[in-house]
Amino acid sequence: MLLDYFEGKKVLDRYGIRSIESKYVESSEDALKFAGEGKLVLKLISEKQLHKSKAGLVKLDLSGHEAIAKAYRELEAKGRALQPYRIIAQKMALGGVEIIIGGNEDPQFGKMVLLGLGGIYVEVFRDFALRLCPITRQDALDMIDQLKSRKVVTYGGEATGMIQDLLVKTSKLLYENGDIKELDLNPVVVRPDGYDVVDIRILK
Amino acid sequence: MRAPIDLKPMLKPKSVAIIGVSRSPDKVGHIILQNYLNAGYSGRLYLVNKSGEEILGMETYRSILEIKDRIDLAVISIPAQFVPEVLEECGKAKVKSAVVVSGGFAEIGQGALQDEITRIAEKYKIAMLGPNCLGVVDPRSRVDTLFLPTYKLSRPEIGGVSFVAQSGAVGSTILDLISGEGFGLSKFISYGNAAYVDEVDILNYLMNDDETKVIVMYIEGIKRAREFVEIAKKVTKKKPVIVLKAGKTAEGSAAAHSHTAALAGSYQAHEAIFRQFGFIIANDISELFFYAKVFASEPAPNGGRVAVITNGGGVGVLTVDAVSSSGMLSLAQFSKESSNALKKVMPSLVNIRNPLDLAGDADDKRYSQALSVLSSDNGIDMLIVIALFQTPGADSRLATELIRLKENMQKPMLVLSIGAEFTKMHKIMMESAGLPVYDSPASIALALEALLRYSIYKEKH
């Protein structure tokens, strides 16, 4: 069962993993109000669709009444086939490298944590590292080193410590919450000096 | 979690009973007996056969219960349906261990029959290997339960590499191939259906076995995953484990609900655990050998800076390419002192740089002079010595000199020799003396990388 987005956000909060400011919206006016002066993302969330971007369920870089209203209408139209669904508004993240941090439960070994080059091509490039939970900081470093894209993902090492932190926290979260069967934080947008968890998908 | 099963009675038995021994030379029981005799097993050997007839001039017993001696190991090769009864008798006779060679259990859907013999083994605390397995070879104790005749499958020399395989077919081909390598065998264990003794018990035994320097495993599946993780953590702190896992291409779950689940299938989980706990992962059978060989003889390196010494320019360049394309290795810079010392002793046609091309007429003396200088250069962590035996200067004296130099070498030193019969002869010479020889730049780079990776793992975890 897919955990409600904001329930998921709370779980991440408990482990000190910050995710981007978000809100469910019921109308384009709602979304406009949430956007304020900044740029906005609208997403449709449904248990029936894992690949949101590919299915056109993510509208990026929105600003102004017109653009937001248009995007909202389009999502509503797509939502009819994906009932039940919710539309979520998020602050637009600053640019950066997209990584995936994930977790699942191997039927034999138990909870595993994953790090990979993220975004919509994650299953195309398959550049990822996997470990059994709980992991040490050294394990986290080994995972980063295992990626072919390690130089890109860490900005030549600048973001290494931050990604290590995120991995250790995620591993702890997975290890301590037996009921969480799968977890996708994809993408996590990484910059040399910070990150934003932009999408949360937790299955219980 | 149960206590690990001790395999000592199986691998170092003072007394062995072969149950199901047969008069006809093509029967499994007969071949096993023949192999015991060929290997020169020096413990007490008993034969059990229902008919009680004499075989190869040896007395047989109708049942294990008739033997007055305490039996350490029973090798059972009789039809599956009779195994429970015979194992029960082994229990009553206080037999300590058993290798059940017979097939016809879980592998053909006879799970209940397998459970029955497992229960008997548990009840009498018999260390039971199998069923449906080749069993064990230990060249030191001269135990050999394989039902494959030695004229078809050569047995390796005594050495430090232990080989563990679930599959009999993979196991026997690898055993055959090991006999053609210079490094020898410590233990061979093919454990088949793993009804009782499994990979966890085997790793535990080999971890504490002083005769085993390197463990090589072929795995299809792991029976007790949590226990495996616990032993995996411990074993690699003591010795290297090289693993080849089947099932890489098995389809992941098509109905994955997350990207993570789509990526992290069963093979990936196994591989992740092997990496996490410092196993060396081989991708095919030949890689098992590249790795086994280097770990059997080489010390841990201080780093990944490689010096290449060659008597052939082109092969030197190809080797530099292989070293440079490895993510972990790099080409070393010779120190000023080394360069000056080399200039003094090398003929003028030798360019003093890495790779050091000693030229096609290089003989054992030139190699010796070069290696003596470079072995004490602190900027060099590992040495690749390319010895092409097709050249005018290279002959058995070179092989002998390299063996001599190896004896005092503190750093990993590997030889690359590519060629047919004449080269192979020298390869065997060198490898028998503990100097590993490779036949391609790519394989030598893989071996050095694994050696370095393991030494870093041990340092950091």
What does this structure look like?
The complex is a heterodimer of chains A (204) and B (461). With 204 residues, chain A is α+β, with helices and mostly antiparallel strands. Chain A has helices at residues 5-14, 28-35, 65-79, 122-125, 137-146, 150-153, 160-176; strands at residues 22-24, 40-45, 58-62, 86-91, 97-106, 110-117, 128-132, 182-191, 194-197, 200-203. In chain A, the strands form two sheets. In chain A, strands 5, 6, 7, 8, 9 and 10 form a six-stranded antiparallel beta sheet that branches. A four-stranded antiparallel beta sheet of chain A has the order 1-4-2-3. In chain A, β5 (97-106) and β6 form a beta hairpin. The longest helix of chain A is centred in the C-terminal third of the chain and has 17 residues, at 160-176. With 461 residues, chain B is of the alpha/beta class. Chain B has two domains: 8-295, Rossmann fold; 300-460, Rossmann fold (3-Layer(aba) Sandwich). Chain B has a seven-stranded mixed beta sheet, with helices on both faces. The chains are: A alpha+beta (204), B alpha/beta (461).
Summarize the SSE layout with pairings.
The complex is a heterodimer of chains A (204) and B (461).
Chain A: H1 5-14, E1 22-24, H2 28-35, E2 40-45, E3 58-62, H3 65-79, E4 86-91, E5 97-106, E6 110-117, H4 122-125, E7 128-132, H5 137-146, H6 150-153, H7 160-176, E8 182-191, E9 194-197, E10 200-203
Antiparallel strand pairs in A: 1-4, 2-3, 2-4, 5-6, 5-8, 6-7, 8-9, 8-10
Helix pairs in contact in A: 2-3, 5-7
Chain B: H1 8-11, E1 15-19, H2 28-39, E2 44-48, E3 60-61, E4 73-76, H3 83-92, E5 97-100, H4 111-124, E6 127-129, E7 135-138, E8 143-144, E9 158-165, H5 168-178, E10 185-190, H6 199-207, E11 214-219, H7 225-238, E12 241-245, H8 259-263, H9 266-276, E13 280-281, H10 285-297, E14 305-310, H11 313-325, E15 330-331, H12 336-345, E16 356-357, H13 364-374, E17 382-386, H14 396-407, E18 413-416, H15 421-432, E19 437-438, H16 441-460
Helix pairs in contact in B: 3-4, 6-7, 10-16, 11-16, 12-13, 13-14, 14-15
